[in-house]
């Protein structure tokens, strides 16, 4: 099973997301049934290594956040319109 380390994102919005991407971080969201959504940030290179190895839409992923593990599945990925770059990712809590 794949494990990704994440951090809580305090600032939200377009400006803060662009700032994250500038420092090689990726904004993401973690949501689920009967669960309040969490805005998180991931290291872009860690996610890219996993993305290139396997089909992340079919596999379950563990996200390590605040000394807790969350079992998630990738629900949606937003890409840049003409560059080969991920802009945002949505995780659904299982």
What's the short story on this structure?
The chain contains two helices and six strands, in the order E-H-E-E-H-E-E-E. The chain has 94 residues and is of the alpha/beta class.
Report on this structure:
By secondary structure, the protein is an alpha/beta fold. It has one domain: Ribosomal Protein L25, Chain P, CATH 2.40.240.10. Helices cover 20% and strands 52% of the residues. It has helices at 14-22, 44-53, and strands at residues 2-8, 25-32, 35-43, 61-65, 68-79, 86-93. The chain has a 6-stranded mixed beta barrel. The protein is globular. It starts with a strand and ends with a strand.
Secondary-structure topology with pairs:
Layout: E1 2-8, H1 14-22, E2 25-32, E3 35-43, H2 44-53, E4 61-65, E5 68-79, E6 86-93
Parallel strand pairs: 1-4, 2-6
Antiparallel strand pairs: 1-3, 2-3, 4-5, 5-6
Comma- or semicolon-separated keywords:
6-stranded mixed barrel; alpha/beta; 2 helices; globular; Ribosomal Protein L25, Chain P; 94 residues
């Amino acid at each position: 099973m794949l494990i990704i380390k994440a951090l809580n994102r305090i600032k939200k919005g377009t400006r803060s997301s662009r700032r994250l991407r500038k420092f090689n971080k990726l904004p993401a969201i973690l949501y689920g049934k009967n669960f309040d959504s969490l805005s998180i940030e991931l290291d872009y290179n860690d996610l890219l290594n996993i993305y290139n190895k396997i089909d992340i839409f079919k596999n379950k992923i563990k996200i390590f956040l605040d000394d807790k593990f969350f079992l998630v599945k990738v629900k949606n990925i937003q890409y840049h319109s003409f560059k080969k770059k991920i802009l945002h990712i949505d995780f659904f809590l299982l």
